[in-house]
Write a structure and sequence with these properties.
By secondary structure, this protein is α+β, with helices and mostly antiparallel strands. It has helices at residues 28-80, 83-94, 117-124, 164-209, 223-273, 278-307, 322-340, 359-376, 407-412, 418-423, 434-444; strands at residues 101-106, 109-110, 129-136, 139-149, 152-159, 318-321, 344-347, 354-357, 383-389, 393-400, 448-453, 459-466.
Length: 470
């Protein structure tokens, strides 16, 4: 008997454990609060940089306009009064609050020094004066002047406003601090609101990892949180379904393993106790060998299923002539089928049919499907292995005249142990691995497999492969 211990070597990939969160890891709430504070601070700085100069400029403009209005009034009064009263009016203006300085221009000369020469000349020329900043008496001042005619005029000067920006900032600090506090509060509320569904999801994931499959999350807005809740709920349902199927599969496999082991153990005990005589030893040996081969096939199927998705699963694609492959399978099964009273025949076209596949793996699929059919087909009913060339691919069919499958069976035919679980104790079944293995092999060969109803009255399994020319 060939040694299969070498087949038991399965590569094991060690997955690095994800890093555990440390105590220094900031929470979402903290980050949201920090984001709110940063946004509020940026808003405060931008407001200060933009609003304070604008407010200062508006204050200066208002002061300039007020000085201009005051100058217009004084000029209007001076035009209607006697010259003797002009000096008295100017003296009264100089005593007003606000630091306004009044200058009377008479025949192109100021009544006292301090005014820039250009201002005096402009008034003497009959032109009004309006300057935001001018040097008056050695100090910067706002200047408004109005001509009275004949080289006369009046000029009012007010010291340029200083520290307006600081004054505006002092007036705005309370609203700015209120905005900063609002940003912090909004960050706290937003962080708690955003973190709550994530905390719930983390708790649910922890319960799932501990084995609790009853976890469900309530879906709540916004849309992203709803999708997260639905995904976790679907994951919990998928895990529960998968684990249920695994339990059923393990139960069925344990039964399949126990049956030949019980037979081998029983005959071994009989041989050990001397119950089996020399004349029965050959028969007992054949029975033990058959059961051991059955165990060997079962273990080989399990290993193949476990390694189907592994990178080192050997698949050697080449151009294969399918007619000769199917006829060789027919010849191989003919003796066993004849003993069971089941005719096996091949339906092949006249010419050659080629496909790009692995001949050993394809033969493994065909042999597995015929083995399944031999197990359930009653004597006298046929098994047909057919090759059907299609326009864009090639099909290999295994049809039988057995009890067949229902439409519900077809939907789960290639799931591990599904049919075995349904028909255990009802009719002859295998381990439930053969069809799952055939489906996995078909995928690895770049093809597909489907189950259906056969014209012979039983089940039909069709493997579709990429077609190629020789």
């Amino acid at each position: 008997m060939p040694d299969r211990r070498a087949d038991l070597t399965v590569p094991i990939r060690v997955l690095a454990a994800p890093p555990r969160p440390t105590a220094s890891t900031s929470t979402l709430t903290t980050r949201a609060v920090l984001a709110g504070v940063i946004v509020a601070l940026i808003t405060l700085v931008v407001t200060a940089l933009v609003a304070v100069p604008l407010a200062a400029r508006a204050t200066e403009r208002a002061a300039q306009e007020g000085l201009a209005s005051q100058t217009d009034v004084v000029a209007q009064v001076l035009r209607s009064r006697r010259p003797a009263a002009d000096a008295k009016l100017i003296e009264q203006l100089r005593k007003l609050d606000g630091g306004v300085s009044a200058y009377l221009i008479t025949t192109g000369a100021a009544d006292r020094p301090g005014l820039p020469t250009r201002v005096v000349q402009q008034i003497a020329d009959g032109k009004p004066v309006s300057e935001r900043l001018a040097l008056v008496g050695g100090r910067l001042a706002m200047v408004e002047g109005r001509p009275l005619g004949g080289g006369d005029g009046v000029v009012l000067a007010r010291p340029a406003a200083t520290g307006i920006s600081r004054q505006v900032l002092r007036n705005l600090w309370l609203p700015l601090l209120a905005g900063l506090g609002a940003g912090v509060l909004a960050g706290v509320l937003l962080g708690r609101r955003l973190a709550r569904p994530i905390r719930n999801a983390a708790t649910a994931a922890a319960r799932l990892s501990s084995g609790d499959r009853t976890v469900r999350l309530a879906a709540e807005p916004p849309q992203e949180v709803e999708r997260l809740a639905h995904s976790i709920n679907e994951l919990a349902e998928a895990l529960a379904t998968s684990e249920g199927r695994q339990r059923e599969f393990l139960l069925s496999i344990s039964h399949e393993l126990r049956t030949p082991l019980t037979t081998i153990k029983g005959y071994a005990e009989a041989l050990s106790d001397g119950v089996v005589g020399a004349d029965s030893a050959q028969e007992v040996g054949q029975t033990v060998l058959a059961e051991a081969e059955r165990l060997d096939r079962l273990v080989a199927d399990l290993l193949s299923l476990a390694r189907l998705d592994a990178a080192d699963f050997a698949v050697q694609l080449t151009d294969v002539e399918l007619v000769s492959l199917v006829t060789s399978a027919e010849r191989a099964f003919a003796p066993r089928a004849a003993q069971a009273g089941v005719p096996v025949r091949a339906e092949v076209p006249a010419g050659e049919v080629w496909a790009r596949t692995d001949p050993l793996r394809l033969r493994q699929i065909v042999d597995g499907l015929v083995e399944n059919a031999l197990r359930v087909v009653p004597p006298g009913r046929p098994i047909v292995v057919a090759v059907r060339p299609l326009p864009d691919r090639t099909a290999i069919e295994v049809r039988d005249g057995g009890p067949g499958l229902t439409d519900d069976d077809l939907a789960v035919a290639f799931e591990r142990g599904a049919l075995h679980q349904r028909y255990q104790g009802v009719r002859q079944t295998g381990s439930g691995l053969g069809l799952a293995l055939a489906a996995g092999l078909a995928r690895r060969l770049g093809g597909t497999i489907e189950a259906g109803h056969a014209a012979e009255g039983g089940a039909r399994f069709t493997v579709y492969l990429p077609r190629t020319s020789a």
